[in-house]
Design a protein that fits this description.
494 residues; alpha/beta; Rossmann fold; 3 domains; 4-stranded parallel beta sheet; two-stranded antiparallel ribbon; 17 helices; 14 strands; globular
């Protein structure tokens, strides 16, 4: 993994795995090469079988029949060609933030390139023997099989990392804006295998607190004891520019302990999300880009929201009636519930939901505050006594949120964005929390696909800010696709 990356306009030093950690995953590339070669040849044989044995879509005339021994060498040569195109496409090197959808795109691109090259060669050499349909079938089957291989790889890596294999344990030095930029990038990409052990900061209020599940480990002076414990693989220095001497002292301390220290440039307090790096014959040039979501971007996002909300309302319309009947039969009160939330720029609006609680739920809230199971300004309980029987089912599968498509149509919400909070919750925001109000809140977001109610509030804000700084239509699409299985299985909802 690279020691630095440019992601969505931000320059971020990402720690590399130490030798001991890296060796635990060195088997991955050769295993993927072997499975790819086997997958290509399996796909090529299935393509031959489909054309010459099944004879789909039309029978093969006897004069054009060719035994598989004619095709076998082609499969081997095609494997070699595809390995080259796969490597050129970067399929055997890890990229920060890359998902299965990204790998699927690379597989399609590399396979198409390799197949075209094979077609040009073989149909110039022996045009009357080889069936073009075999190569067409092979293209589709190779993409399916190799994409399946990468899906299995992601499952295996997730399984291993949950058990601490291939994990790089990181300590952050500094928890200011620069440090939080590192945190939100790592938190937003758990698939990279980085685990933040904690952070140190000389501000007593910060260094002795925590950000979500990331604990404060005290002042910077205590770093020596932390790194000597043997529980740290990398140290990322994210101190302000004014603390240059302290940063150098940290680097020296890491070198004495045999650790690699990486420094995130503060760049004179400039927002990392707006930094662009250009190369002038080996000389790095730093500049500022426009903010990630321009006026044109907002127009495009709004059009997508309108189309998506219209589709959602039409598709789910038949289910609204039985849900409404179930709510009415279960408990007294209205079917729809309107609650005040805070949107973009602090603007307040009424959010629509199917009622999942008793009518006097808001009046009961002060009595339940002591039983809050969530940190920060939010209130959540796994077994909230205010929920009705039908309401528990609705909340489990997020059915209560379906009327929010109306809010999307009105422009109060977006399909994807930060979670909309109540005014009382926003009133308790820390200054850096308010950055999440820069965009419209969403029905889903990184906070939801990263654990929903199980994500602590500070981590939720880190994810929201990461989303704001790295927004793209592709990122929205990834979040929507990752939301679907969460809704079907109800993970992390209560």
């Amino acid at each position: 993994m690279e020691g630095s990356r440019v992601d969505g306009g931000s320059v971020l030093a990402v720690p590399r795995l130490r030798n001991g950690q890296a060796r635990s995953l060195r088997w991955l590339t050769p295993v993927m090469v072997v499975t790819d070669v086997l997958g290509v040849n399996l796909a090529f044989y299935l393509s031959y079988y489909l054309r010459y044995q099944v004879e789909w879509p039309t029978p093969v005339e006897e004069v054009f029949y060719a035994p598989y021994r004619y095709y076998f060498p082609i499969g081997l040569i095609l494997s070699a060609v595809l390995l080259v195109t796969f490597r050129m496409e970067g399929l055997y090197s890890s990229k920060p933030g890359e998902t299965w959808l990204d790998e699927f795109y690379h597989v399609v691109n590399a396979t198409t390139t390799g197949i075209v090259a094979a077609l040009v060669f073989y149909f110039v050499y022996r045009p009357n023997i080889y069936s073009r349909l075999v190569f067409i079938y092979a293209t589709v089957l190779i993409v399916i099989i190799l994409s399946f291989n990468r899906w299995v790889k992601d499952l295996v890596l997730g399984y291993l990392r949950r058990r601490g294999i291939g994990i790089s344990r990181v300590v952050l030095v500094g928890a200011g804006e620069v440090g939080r930029a590192v945190m939100r990038n790592i938190v937003a990409h758990p698939e990279l295998g980085y685990q933040i052990v904690g952070f140190v900061d000389d501000d007593p209020e910060v260094g002795n607190s925590s950000l979500g599940r990331i604990p404060g480990l005290g002042p910077v002076s205590g770093l020596s004891k932390i790194v000597s414990s043997g529980n740290v693989d990398e140290v990322v220095v994210a101190l302000p520019w004014s603390q240059h001497r302290e940063a150098m002292a940290v680097i020296d301390e890491c070198q004495r302990n045999g650790l690699r220290a990486l420094v995130v440039p503060d760049l004179f307090q400039m927002s990392l999300s707006r930094v662009q790096v250009q190369d002038l014959d080996g000389i790095p040039l730093l500049g500022l880009s426009e903010r990630s979501m321009s006026g044109v971007d907002r127009v495009i996002k709004r059009l997508v929201d309108i189309i998506g909300a219209t589709f959602g309302l039409l598709v789910l319309a038949l289910l609204y009636v039985p849900i409404a009947i179930a709510i009415k039969l279960d408990s007294p009160g209205p079917v729809l519930y309107t609650q005040e939330r805070v949107g973009r720029g602090g603007k307040r609006f009424g959010i629509y939901k199917f009622r999942s609680m008793r009518q006097d739920a808001d009046a009961m809230l002060p009595e339940l505050q002591a039983q809050n199971e969530y940190d920060g300004p939010l209130f959540k309980m796994r077994d909230d006594p205010r929920c009705t029987r039908v309401g528990r089912i609705l909340r489990r599968f997020s059915l209560d949120e379906w009327p929010q498509f109306i809010n999307v149509m009105k422009g109060d919400l977006s399909l994807v964005g930060p979670r909309p909070n109540r005014p009382s919750e926003v009133a308790n925001y820390k200054p850096w929390h308010r950055r999440r109000l820069d965009v419209s809140p969403g029905m889903s977001g990184l906070w939801q696909v990263s654990g929903r109610s199980d994500v602590p509030f500070d981590e939720m804000v880190l994810l929201d800010i990461y989303y704001i700084e790295n927004w793209s239509l592709l990122l929205d699409l990834k979040i929507v696709l990752r939301t679907i299985p969460l809704l079907l299985f109800g993970r992390g909802a209560y």
